């Protein structure tokens, strides 16, 4: 099973060059049953990552391009009258797939945003009175462009909190970019990728994550981190219990990915920036959670690990 | 290069505000005995520090700091004439407290300043410990506490009032602990004697007497002592508080013959019922005490001298409490003439011819000593003598001039002249100084005796009767004895004329007088129940509430009980049973220390694995052992449920061996 995980990583890394850490975190996010928010400029490989993940994990993939005129129905699906049967027939929207890529999520109106975010939270959608379960596993990768913010609706803190992790891919290293330029087109590679894990294997792995051992000493470390965000003056708001649960869950998944069945402080530190950066805000920063990098660095250098 | 975390650096605004306020409050009560330039220094330093906070000024450079320090020390030296002694030391302390302000950069500096402030507050009690001083010191303590609380706040705007509120809450919470400590903390004697503030400014009787000196003293309304009687207070004309006797006269000044400490105790006969009372004496910087004749005290440090006065082995440098028993009608040295009696006949060889002539004349008229003394008193009563606080200055034969020309004088003139005449008539006599009367505080049923109650009278010796008290002032101004000095000199408006704001001057205004007496009673209670709650009172208090006999065991029990309670509290707070991982931590810190010696220091947030990897890279010779320990630690700390330290100690031993080998190689 472990080898399969590293095979997964290898396969995705073959497509998305030089983003080892981000790929690993993305897979961690899947294993921890969390959703992923990728913040980056266009063309950095967000879609490629999502595609590759879907392919490797054998998940059905749908992409929703968020625009300002997107309606909740466009995401969730609508009932259409069927002349032949004389009844309304529900046409499921793109959300009914196992891996959903919500591109440029901040371009849509808050109403449409919250349709997606509610579905993420509940694992089911209610349309016209009927509750319909979403597939299991269900994994959302949302992207947003933090730079060109004209005509966008910034996600509020409460909705940011629903994402287990926030990543940014960043420019590739020179060697990786050279390989990219010289190599085959990504668009050609993707359809050829083979599935490494099937659905059952994935849910088995997700169950295993819950059994990764967490010792008292490690919980103490997590508590120290959370406590620091709540008491230190530079933090505008402390981490919620949901955040500390997320941190522990992600650390477990990371430990599993590392091939261990127990968590060590280094696991927590590895996932910490991705898990908490979008939930923290500096007291002096009135914006939407940007510039929290210094806070995360502070947590990583000042809170005693032992 | 030590990199301090950002939060260590700046001092929050709330803290700085309170620091400045507290500093002002700390210095304020000291102002009375500080040179004026210290205040200027404080204002300058405070302004400088505020400008630094507003980024309009810089911190002083090392050179400026050194110059300031040298300048201040020189200033203290010049204005106090030295750097040794309590007074100069306190000035120096306050100056250091002020100067430290301008170099307060980090929280650590601020902490130093705050602790210095607490200490400076304490030094105020070396000068006086009145209830007002004590109450006032709560203000600077509150300010300093607020600064301390503010130091823990963030640099972002925090309203100073919330800080003060928290500090006040802390102080209130400390009250029960304070009471418990006050009641039960054992009073240990001082381990060393404290140098006392100089005698300057202490008014009181001096060890000699010249005309005009007691009149000078009577301008002061300062408190000399308070006395409370177990039984009803004796009649006013019985209240002669003996302090000193003078048996040597050099023509102008009365002094006492120096006597050895072990001078023979004089004999006396108790007559009548004893009077029991306790006295709380203000600081006098002199060893003698005040008591009615003939007094006796149980205190080992108090002894009766050959002239029946009480004296303490050390000067009274702080408010002093003692109990005494007196026999007012006792006969003093009634039998054989002692050395004291023989000394009481000394006179200068020449001078005062008219007084001597009058004495010879009286001697011829009266063969009986007592009748002669009565005749002298009659002379004062019948001739137009005046009792005044403004006696004329007399030159040359002062007694002659007073007796026969000016006839205006204060008690020391009358006492001195009468003693002289009696001695000239060959009757042993001496001048006694002390206090007469006192004001009865009816609210508290105790007597307050003030400096203007200072008095001088005469004692002469008669075979069989001993020393007999005679008060010539009573003949001239009976009001002085019956009703006090204010009544006696009411005609000339000279009572406390140098002190127009003394509440004592307004005694005839009923409400002011009531207020004054109540305030005095409060002070008396403070003295009696707070300041004088020393070892002995504590012991008897414990005896009363616990009904046990031995004081030392009692204090031991209380101490032990306190320790047990504190220990239980500590255990409850620390909860040692919860620290299951402590042995692992200990092993890890040993591991850290080992690597630290090799120059690999763990960063505060570094996990064990990262640290081990870094150390292994830095110390390739011991890389395996380092990794081995790290693996073992990880296993015990994070992997298994029941932790064992054995693998850790094994790994440590291996590491130690490996490192030791590396060192010898």
TrEMBL record, chain A:
<dbReference type="Pfam" id="PF17863">
    <property type="entry name" value="AAA_lid_2"/>
</dbReference>
<dbReference type="Pfam" id="PF07726">
    <property type="entry name" value="AAA_3"/>
</dbReference>
<dbReference type="InterPro" id="IPR027417">
    <property type="entry name" value="P-loop_NTPase"/>
</dbReference>
<protein>
    <recommendedName>
        <fullName>MoxR-like ATPase</fullName>
    </recommendedName>
</protein>
<dbReference type="GO" id="GO:0016887">
    <property type="term" value="F:ATP hydrolysis activity"/>
</dbReference>
<feature type="domain" description="ChlI/MoxR AAA lid">
    <location>
        <begin position="228"/>
        <end position="286"/>
    </location>
</feature>
<feature type="domain" description="ATPase AAA-3">
    <location>
        <begin position="35"/>
        <end position="165"/>
    </location>
</feature>
<dbReference type="InterPro" id="IPR011703">
    <property type="entry name" value="ATPase_AAA-3"/>
</dbReference>
<dbReference type="GO" id="GO:0005524">
    <property type="term" value="F:ATP binding"/>
</dbReference>
<dbReference type="InterPro" id="IPR050764">
    <property type="entry name" value="CbbQ/NirQ/NorQ/GpvN"/>
</dbReference>
<comment type="similarity">
    <text>Belongs to the MoxR family.</text>
</comment>
<keyword id="KW-0547">Nucleotide-binding</keyword>
<keyword id="KW-0067">ATP-binding</keyword>
<dbReference type="InterPro" id="IPR041628">
    <property type="entry name" value="ChlI/MoxR_AAA_lid"/>
</dbReference>
From TrEMBL, chain B:
<dbReference type="InterPro" id="IPR038765">
    <property type="entry name" value="Papain-like_cys_pep_sf"/>
</dbReference>
<feature type="transmembrane region" description="Helical">
    <location>
        <begin position="133"/>
        <end position="151"/>
    </location>
</feature>
<feature type="transmembrane region" description="Helical">
    <location>
        <begin position="34"/>
        <end position="50"/>
    </location>
</feature>
<feature type="transmembrane region" description="Helical">
    <location>
        <begin position="109"/>
        <end position="127"/>
    </location>
</feature>
<dbReference type="InterPro" id="IPR052901">
    <property type="entry name" value="Bact_TGase-like"/>
</dbReference>
<feature type="transmembrane region" description="Helical">
    <location>
        <begin position="163"/>
        <end position="185"/>
    </location>
</feature>
<feature type="domain" description="Transglutaminase-like">
    <location>
        <begin position="403"/>
        <end position="474"/>
    </location>
</feature>
<dbReference type="Pfam" id="PF11992">
    <property type="entry name" value="TgpA_N"/>
</dbReference>
<feature type="transmembrane region" description="Helical">
    <location>
        <begin position="84"/>
        <end position="102"/>
    </location>
</feature>
<dbReference type="Pfam" id="PF01841">
    <property type="entry name" value="Transglut_core"/>
</dbReference>
<dbReference type="InterPro" id="IPR002931">
    <property type="entry name" value="Transglutaminase-like"/>
</dbReference>
<keyword id="KW-0472">Membrane</keyword>
<feature type="transmembrane region" description="Helical">
    <location>
        <begin position="554"/>
        <end position="574"/>
    </location>
</feature>
<dbReference type="Pfam" id="PF13559">
    <property type="entry name" value="DUF4129"/>
</dbReference>
<protein>
    <submittedName>
        <fullName>Protein-glutamine gamma-glutamyltransferase</fullName>
    </submittedName>
</protein>
<feature type="transmembrane region" description="Helical">
    <location>
        <begin position="62"/>
        <end position="78"/>
    </location>
</feature>
<dbReference type="InterPro" id="IPR021878">
    <property type="entry name" value="TgpA_N"/>
</dbReference>
<keyword id="KW-1133">Transmembrane helix</keyword>
<keyword id="KW-0812">Transmembrane</keyword>
<dbReference type="InterPro" id="IPR025403">
    <property type="entry name" value="TgpA-like_C"/>
</dbReference>
